[in-house]
Amino acid sequence: MAINQKPLLLDVDEKPEVLKGILLSFQHVFAMFGATILVPLILGMPVSVALFASGIGTLIYQVATKAKVPVYLGSSFAYITAMAVAIEQMGGDIKAAQTGVIMVGLVYVLIAGIVKMLGTKWIDKLLPPPIVIGPMIMVIGLGLASSAVTNAGFVADGDIRHIIVAIATFLITSFINTKGKGFFKIIPFLIGIIGGYVIALFMGLVDFQ
Predict the structure, then answer these.
(1) Over 50: is that where the pLDDT of 42 sits?
(2) Average pLDDT in the 78-83 region?
(3) How far apart are alpha carbons 39 and 37 in whole angstroms?
(4) Contacts for 28-35 with beta carbons within 8 Å, 24 or more apart?
(5) This prediction's pTM
(6) What is the pLDDT of residue 3?
(7) CA-based end-to-end distance of the chain
(8) Looking at the predicted structure, is the pLDDT value of residue 96 above 80?
(9) Taking Cα atoms as reference points, which of 77, 83, 85, 73 lies closest to residue 140?
(10) Which residues does 30 contact at the CB level (< 8 Å), separation at least 6?
(11) Residues contacting residue 82 through CB under 8 Å, at least 6 positions apart
(12) pLDDT-based confidence at residue 8 (cuts at 50, 70, 90)
């Protein structure tokens, strides 16, 4: 069955208009920053180390891709559960988790070498994207559900204001993502953050100090 793919708005050798580029950049910064600091916070690791390592990784990636892929490489949610189990089994020691991450990195390097020589068709056959990516994203989402529920205030004695802001932010983002037109459709995350911030401001949750 053929899969309908949406055409790219910009190719790798093209750049967006200045204003659109700024908005997309802000959205990317907010998205990557939240994800990058959340992983070490959940695992009890230093946030500064995660930011430093992801920054170095991003610079290496930009050099390797000749700056044609404008993305920031933040923390990965894919390894949270495995790292959490490893840390727990070691009584809070992160050595086993660190070793696992290093080994995964080496596997990535090995696969990158194979892709360089053979291309990517063998990966598509071994791990068909629709079959692999969907369940993987669901597992990651379900694994983080408890943290999301807690952070949104859906707990005993939770602040109703936090709950309202969380729901409103989610609804704004979802609405823009599904009903938005033109350029707005590709910045739902940024619009959701702005909308949620304004609501939080009116509800007295923003501390300007």
Answers:
(1) yes
(2) 84
(3) 6
(4) 28/70, 28/71, 28/72, 29/72, 30/189, 30/190, 30/193, 31/189, 32/72, 32/74, 33/74, 35/74, 35/75, 35/77
(5) 0.68
(6) 46
(7) 56
(8) yes
(9) 77
(10) 189, 190, 193
(11) 97, 100
(12) low
Enumerate residues 6+ apart whose C-beta is below 8 A from 177.
185, 188
Structure tokens that stand for 90 in this block: 């070691």
Predicted confidence (pLDDT) at residue 45 exceeds the cutoff of 60:
yes
The whole-angstrom separation of Cα 14 and Cα 11 is 5
Is pLDDT of 65 > 60? Answer: yes
Lowest mean pLDDT segment, chosen from 35-39, 89-93, 103-107, 127-131: 127-131
3-state secondary structure the chain: CCCCCCCCCCCCCCCCCHHHHHHHHHHHHHHHHHHHHHHHHHHCCCHHHHHHHHHHHHHHHHHHCCCCCCCCCCCCHHHHHHHHHHHHHCCCCCHHHHHHHHHHHHHHHHHHHHHHHHCCHHHHHHCCHHHHHHHHHHHHHHHHHHHHHHHCCCCCCCCHHHHHHHHHHHHHHHHHHHHCCHHHHHCHHHHHHHHHHHHHHHCCCCCCC
